[in-house]
Every structure is written in C-alpha cells, then in structure tokens.
Amino acid sequence: MVPLFFQVLKPRLWTCPESSISLIHRPLPAKRAPPPPPALGPRAVCGACFCAAFEAEVLHTVVAGRLLPPGAVVAVGASGGKDSTVLAHVLQVLAPRLGISLRLVAVDEGIGGYRDAALAAVRRQAARWELPLTVVAYADLFGGWTMDAVARSTAGSGRSRACCTFCGVLRRRALEEGARLVGATHIVTGHNADDMAETVLMNFLRGDAARLARGGGLGSPGEGGALPRCRPLQLASQKEVVLYAHFRRLDYFSEECVYAPEAFRGHARHLLKLLEAARPSAVLDLVHSAERLALAPAARPPAPGACALLDGLNRGRPRLAIGKGRRGLDEAGPPRDGEPERAPAPEAVPAF
Amino acid sequence: MCQVGEDYAEPASEEPPPRQPGREQKCVKCKEGLPVVVIRAGDAFCRDCFKAFYIHKFRAVLGKNRLIFPGEKVLLAWSGGPSSSSMVWQVLEGLSRESAKRLRFVPGIVCIDEGAACGLSPEARAKTLAEMKLILQTVGFPWHVVALEEVFDLPPSVLRCFAQEPVETEGAYKAAVDSFLQQQHVLGAEGAGDSPSLAQGEEQLSWPCTQDPQNPQSPDRPPTAAQTEALSRLFDSVKTLTAKEELLQALRTHLILHVARTHGYSKVMTGDSCTRLAIKLMTSLALGRGAFLAWDTGFSDERHGDVVVVRPMREHTLKEVAFYNHLFAVPSVFTPALDTKAPEKASIHRLMEAFMLRLQDQFPSTVSTVYRTSEKLVKAPRHGCAASPPGPRCLLCMCALDIDTAGAALLSQGGPPSLRHRAAVLRLPREHEGLALRGPPATLHLGRGPAPQPELLPQGLHRAADPGVPG
C-alpha cells in the first residue's frame, strides 16, 4: 500500500524531497483523519510539489498523445463536479504552453434539484477564471425532452429506468452541439482513471461489446464528422484529482445525481473500490486491459445514437433503441433470434 | 438490470417472474417427467432430460470446434474438484458408448499434488492421494500423479515456445475422421485384436482397456523434504495471495504441459466451467491481462505451440455441474486450495468470485452475459498461424508481451502500470525540462519511464540535440 502522507507524531521538521522546502508538521487532532495519500508511488511530497507533478503529468499526457495541437479551440465539458473543475483549472494553467484557448460548455439535462445547483457552481467558476461559458439544455436541443421527462416515460414497466443510458448518449450529443456553437475544434472531458476502470468492468458485466470495442484509448478521433474528443485526466486516479482540488482550493459541486442510486454503474464502482483496496494498481491495470481488448469485428454493432433514442422516446416506446438491434424501429415481427441459452434443438452430433 | 440487448420491444411481453416448480409443472423438454432441477431462469428438467442435455452440451462443444482428431492422445487435467471430475466422467461415458457416437480419442489423466504450496501436512497429502488413486483406478485411464515439487526439475526448454503446426483446414478434419472410420471398419472385418494403428501413421497407440490400470506411467516417488521445503519457501516469499495464486497457476500449467510433452499427448483438457471462466475473465481484466483474454478463457489455447489446451466444460454452469454430480453420483475429492477459508478481501480472485456470485443472485444472467462477451474476443493482433510473430514472450504465461515501445497509447510507454514505478513518473525527459512548471525549476523532473521517442513529440518541443534519457 502507499505510505502515509503525514506522519502523525510529534511536531517535527520535514523536508519535501522535491522542493527542499522545510515544513513543520504538527500532528493532526485525533478526530480528523489525515487526507488520503496520493497514489504517487513511494515518494511523499508536499502539497505544492504534488500539484506541480499533477499538472506536469497532464501536460505530458496531452503532449505525448498529441491530443490538443497548438491553436486548438478547446470546449471543456463542465458539469460543476470535481473532475471537470480540475480539468478546466489545469488546462487553464497549461493553456499558454500548449497554445490553446478554452471555452466552457455546460449541459443542462433538466434534472430538478441537482443540475440547477451544479450550474450555479459552473457559473461561479466561469466568472472567476474569466472563461466564456455556454449552457446547452436538453429541453432546447431535443424537443422538450428533459431527463425527468425521460425517466417518467421509461418508468413503470418493472424493469430499470435505464436513465444513464439515455443521459449519456444525449449528453454527448449536447456537448457536440455546444462545442460547435462556440466554434471549438476539440472537446475535452474530465474522465479519470477510476471512471475508465468502472466503464470497462460495467461493459463486461452488461455484455456491451459495442462500447467495449470503442472505448479504451485516450480519446476518439471523431467518427463521422464529430469533433475529436479526449480525456486528459485519464491516467490520474480519483484520489489525485480530489487532492489537487483540495490543495488548489477549487470550488466544486459534490452531490451525486438524483438517478445515480439505481444506475448499474454503482455495482462496478463498488467492485472497483474493493479491488483497489486489495491491490492499488488494479485501477490502472484495468485501464491497461481496456486499451488492449480485441473484439471480433462482427461483434461490434454501432451503439445507438441520439437520433435513435429520441425516435423511440417520441414514439412512446422509449426502449426501442436500447433493445437488441433496432428491430422495433422497423416494426418487424417477433424477435427472430431467441435467447442463446435455450435448449439446443436436437441435431446430429458431428462425428469427431 | 440495464443489460444491453435485453429485448424491450414490447412492454406487454415482459416475462413473468420465474415460477417455482410446483406440483403441476412438468419437464419443459419431454413434458412428461417430474422436474428435478431448474436450469437458467425457470427451465425445469426431469432427470433423464437433464442428463441428455448435459451430455449433449459436452459433445456439442467438442464437436463444434473440431480440434480433437480421432485417435489423438488427450490428457485430462483432473484436480479432484467437481468440474474436472464431471469432465472425466463424461469422457469415460463417452468412450463406452455404442460405436457410432463413441468418443474417439485416447485419454490419460494427470493430477497435480499441490499440497506443499497450500501448506498441507504430509499425512493430509498422503490421505488425499490415496482417495484420488482409488478413483483413478476405477476410471481406468492411464494416470500420472505429479507433485508440484517436480516443477524444480523442469528443463529450461519448457520456457521456449515450440513452433506450431499449420492450422488444420476443415477438409483435413473430415478426411481424418473418414479415414479413421474406414480403418476401424477394416479392422473390425479382419477381427484384429491388437491395438490399431492410425492412418496418420505416427505412433502405435495402445487402447486403454488393454492397459493395466494398476501400473501408472510415471514412477511413483514422493517428493523429497528438501524440495517441499524449497517450494514452501518460494510461496512464502510471495507477499500477496493474488500473486501466489497467479504463480501457482503458472507453475501448474508448465508442469501439466511438461507431462503432456514427455508422454506424447498433444491436447490437454481442463475442466473450467462457465462460472469459473466468467470469474477468471473478470479477474484477468483486473490484473491487466486484457490483451490475453481470448487465450485465457477461450475454448482452445495454443500459445504453448505443440500442446493445445482445450476447455470442453466451458458451457456448463457450476450449478449444472453440481446437480449432475449429485444426481449421477460422480466421485470427486475435496482438496484444500490456496484460498480455502481465505477472507473475501484477501485476493483479487476471491473478491471477483464473491462479487460475481452475489451479482448472479441478483441478476441471473450475469455469468452467461460475461461468457457470451468472452466468445466475441479474438486472439488479436495475429491469429495462431504457423509463423508465430518473433516478438518476445512472457516467461511465465508464454503470451506475447503487450508492451509496445512505439505505441500510440500512452500507457504502453514504460510497461504495464503495475510494474511501472510511479517514482519514475516524477522524472521529466530532457525535452520537457524547459517547460518545468511553477515551483522549483531545476530540481523537479517529471515524466514517465523511458523517454518518449522523439518523433512522438510535436516539433516545437523537440530538442534535436539530445534524445533525452531521463537522468
């Protein structure tokens, strides 16, 4: 396990190995636990050096992967949460060196009691950093469909509401629209290593071959005319992001979405926390695995896009597009291929 | 569960909650018998239909893949546990059927005694061994019991990957089967009682029923105390249970393959069930083995070259195996493993097993979903072809290394993250020294592992003079 960040002993002089700044460490009061140690390996550094190391790592990620060329206009997907706040802050610090300019794009999914407060945080941030902010709302883009309306429409059939499926697809489309509105050339989102690890676990448990085949790299170049997207924080663990926000005293919104408790991702997240406790490198190992998955080309049907989802919603049959293929959209008959697990029809056992 | 592919087309056709088999319910297959077991989510089978279903699945998996040629020598890896015992039993039954549908390969059994790694006392090991020998004698195949200590005597050649034979085409398989059938017919007509020889003509094989099952093929010498001590020391030096399990699997595989090679077996069958393979897939993901999932969990595993590992039980869930063994009295031996009685958080393997089984309770299609996804994995980037890529291979698992030095993905630089020292993260290649950020300038070095190749850096940041090895 990683070493303790603070030695909780009597006050002593301690020197940061990087900056040679001497600090006097006072023991923390017994009630307050020390903040979680960063996953930076066997070195303990002081706060300032940690932040500098974090920024340098993000810079290296962007530069070595050639994610954001100089002169790019970068739309930052800002939700008001810790990841996008940290992302926007770091990119702002690095912007002069990378030669990019930033625009904030916030998406209003229309989730009452959650998104309004988050958007207030985004507005405060935009004011403080003096970055232009554009807010795009589902209600405007998708013909009045807010997430609350989608949830109402998919509820009540005894199965899960699948809110995250809709929200994820629609949000990416909304981000795309917002980015085009501000004339951006690239989109960045604040996904961290924990997010990517949870995603690969979740997609395996759900059997989502399409998304497994697509995900994994540092970002997509932008298929079919979409803007290229990347995730500069992909190699930073969640602990590092939280600590960075703590040390830089960033103001963010930290409540979870109203629909989060019913999401399947919760299982994957719980599993990931257990795995990380048993073996801290599990998070990055999962990201490594995800990059190297090899799926058969035939097993990669394109995942349904926003148009298909909206079509289903508008027809009053919201689950059409997230079923098997898009048969229902063509009003075809009963499903042709049944469950693969049914008892096989008696057939001549081939001689071997 | 928000499972991809669940059919939501008609809300009205939502399936009713699984009915408990009541007195009125009949077997779903024959519609007559009284059901004894419920498979999947509500399919109740009677005893005979269940047996037919189970056996058919086993034969279908073997037949579908057409990898096992008639007359081939196949080594069955038996651990004593329920899945491998069931597999051995299926092979036994399959060999004794009427000639048209009889299984046509020549089996042997290998059993690895892992007591030393698990910390068992010699008396416990002897007791288990005695129970196993009893069952082995009943089964009647040629058997080999090997202690894990013999791994110290393995020659270094096991770490070399032998050249693979070219992949047999469909035509070759059919031709082989036809010629074998003809030959059997001819022999039957001539009334020959001696062991048949193959049209392939390589070896003279002896049919198991003529062999004395009392006489094992390998000399039955118990391992010396020094070897046992050395093995215990080896396993004690490994700190985490996860790593111990991985080490044990690697050693076990090498030992089984060595036994297969020395006795002329070209295939090894292991008894991994659907549930175990799903757990293994998720565990491998969490350990960073995403590139090798197809080999670790697919039907056939050809990475060792001359010997192919085959998993015929991969479509049977643990529940089906357990019920079959119970209903039809398949003998098995309980041997404590490394993680017996270990707490749930002791290793990645235990965690994943507990998680999958719990999730399976809640969403009964979890295991089958993971299995179906695993079927879609391919052995990329190159298929098993005759000229295997000359890239370096891992010593322990014999897979082509998944570290590429000039890859586009960032993680590839510096090797798998679990081996990468994060301290090296704090070292900057010389190219970036000029970009040192706020904070102390010259003393702070950040970056990762070996320096990125110069051509990967944008022109403006490239220092042409110095390729930049981190100091």
TrEMBL record, chain A:
Biological role stated in the UniProt entry: Plays a central role in 2-thiolation of mcm(5)S(2)U at tRNA wobble positions of tRNA(Lys), tRNA(Glu) and tRNA(Gln). Directly binds tRNAs and probably acts by catalyzing adenylation of tRNAs, an intermediate required for 2-thiolation. It is unclear whether it acts as a sulfurtransferase that transfers sulfur from thiocarboxylated URM1 onto the uridine of tRNAs at wobble position.
Residue ranges, compositional bias (Basic and acidic residues): 327-344
Pfam families according to UniProt: ATP_bind_3
GO CC terms of this entry: cytosolic tRNA wobble base thiouridylase complex; mitochondrion
One record GO biological process: tRNA wobble position uridine thiolation
Keyword terms: Cytoplasm, RNA-binding, Transferase, tRNA processing, tRNA-binding
SUPFAM superfamilies per record: Adenine nucleotide alpha hydrolases-like (SSF52402)
Domain called tRNA(Ile)-lysidine/2-thiocytidine synthase N-terminal: residue spans: 74-269
Gene source species: Equus asinus
A single MF term (Gene Ontology): transferase activity
Tree of life domain: Eukaryota
Protein name according to UniProt: tRNA(Ile)-lysidine/2-thiocytidine synthase N-terminal domain-containing protein
Disordered: annotated segments: 321-352
